[in-house]
Amino acid sequence: MKTLNKVTAPKAQRPERIIQFGEGNFLRAFVDWIIYNMNQKTDFNSSVVVVQPIDKGMVDMLNKQDDLYHVNLQGLDKGKVVNSLTMIDVISRALNPYSQNAEFMKLAEQPEIRFVISNTTEAGIAFDPSCKLDDAPASSYPGKLTQLLYHRFKTFNGNKSKGLIIFPCELIFLNGHKLKETIYQYIELWNLGNEFKTWFEESCGVYATLVDRIVPGFPRKEIEAIKEKLQYDDNLVVQAEIFHLWVIEAPQEIAKEFPADKAGLNVLFVPSEAPYHERKVTLLNGPHTVLSPVAYLSGINIVREACQHPVVGKYIHKVMFDELMETLNLPKDELEKFAKDVLERFNNPFVDHAVTSIMLNSFPKYQTRNLPGLKTYLERKGTLPKGLVLGLAAIITYYKGGTRADGAEITPNDAPEIMELLKNLWATNNTQTVAEGVLSAKSIWGEDLNAIPGLTEAVKANLDSIQEKGMLETVKGII
User: What is the reported pLDDT for 121?
Assistant: First the structure.
């Protein structure tokens, strides 16, 4: 078995045009995989310089392999099982700005640098007023980026053609807006002047993005078999699902500079990220939230098995296609394609996704992911969506605890006040009281849901049916 480096494996030399803050599994399996495909299929011809955003990280491991590694994609693609291995060669080098600060700052002096991409966790885009301009480097990611931009501004004397295109990938809604606001805070704190502020405003673009790909990461269980197959001692293999989506809120001229669509990739440049954020929350997270208690109380433990079940599978399809999809405003064909992709992801034969792992904090999840759809459906159709109502009743039943029909222990987990509320309500042994009590909990919903016409009665009827007939028979009654 060979050591993995540029001597033992081919590695193309390309211009360094991208600075990437972050070296973790997600960026390497998502962004760097996308750039690899753009290099292969278009004239993008770019390499990535990775910057470690915190003091302790993985750049030494990356550099030890000359920044080469493999992505292992697993899942279903239009019904076909895929388990592929691809060597990614786009990272030219990886820097630790805490020990290589001069090299880090010199990146600003490279005329060909055009893009900055980041994933520094949700906490990474934050303003730290203790950061100083002469820190080497600033501790926060926006602080480091502002240092870099200011040095570039000075190096090129405010040349407008040397501005940068910035794509944050942190899992924050409107992440680009948040990053831009934080950079402005540093411009103010450090007194960087109006000329620099104007150059930043006019020459740089900070664009909100939505990223979507499940990345399990390093395949500990299968790594020896993977190395045997590769015949390389790769200690940075990263596993990911096949599905990928990158929505970027930016004008079409940016798409011309970043031609992912020409490489056949699922990267969309759109005027607003919001409807795509809503689509993901509604059609991916929404079904997860209700299928989990319905499946679990039907004796099913894994998401894939729920999708393939003759009864629960139809329930999931009904919730997605007949109910939640009807509440969204994107083109129908786009929504149907996305929903079919979601079902393929749920059916991934390589991932045993336990339904109980989704049920933590089920009530707050329902409030953000399903309640808006329930209200919109009622408004548009004049009737309550039966699948979503049953999902709510299933959550309420799950929080009763006890045992399943097969003897498995039901152990709900949530905030203490929610657990206490449900315990006290179920102690009354009165489903009307339970339904009214849960729906009136303003601490969960921010409002009294008993005011929604017909909801209390529908939830009570479902609770009664689940108690009397069991979950599966109750599901059969609505599909």
Answer: 80
How do beta strands 47-51 and 16-21 pair?
parallel
Distances (CA, A) of 151 to 97, 107, 146, 154, 428: 15, 9, 8, 5, 67
Confidence check: pLDDT of 359 > 90: no
Sign of CA dihedral 141, 144, 150, 155: negative
Among residues 259, 217, 164, the alpha carbon closest in space to that of 30 is found at: 217
Looking at residue 284, its pLDDT comes to: 94
What is the residue-wise DSSP string for 381-416?
HSS--HHHHHHHHHHHHHTT-EE-TTS-EE-----H
Q: What is the pLDDT of residue 405?
A: 83
Two tokens, residue 272: 């607003």
Q: Cα separation of 150 and 196, whole Å?
A: 7
CA angle (216 as vertex; 214, 206 as ends), nearest 5: 50
**Using the 8-state DSSP alphabet, how is residue 302 labeled?**
B
Strand-strand pairing, 245-249 and 209-212: antiparallel
* DSSP strands (E only) in 198-294: 205-206, 209-212, 232-233, 238-241, 245-249, 267-270
Separation CA 19–CA 146 (nearest Å): 13
- Apex 151 CA angle, 150 and 157, nearest 5: 90
Rounded distance between C-alpha atoms, residue 207 and residue 205, angstroms: 6
Tell me: the pLDDT tens digits for 410-431?
988 888 999 999 999 999 999 9
Q: 3-state class of 48 per DSSP?
A: strand
Residue 61, C-beta contacts closer than 8 angstroms, at least 6 positions apart: 235, 236
For residue 242, which phi and psi values (nearest 5 degrees)? Answer: -70, -40
Question: Using 50, 70 and 90 to split pLDDT, how confident is the model at 361?
Answer: confident
Residues in the chain: 479
Rounded CA separation 113/51 (Å):
14
Q: How far is CA 310 from CA 78, 167, 234, 296, 314, in A?
A: 21, 43, 42, 15, 7
At what angle are helices 431-439 and 455-469 packed, to 10 degrees?
Answer: 130
Tell me the angle at which helices 141-155 and 194-203 cross, rounded to the nearest 10 degrees. 100
* pTM, two decimal places: 0.87
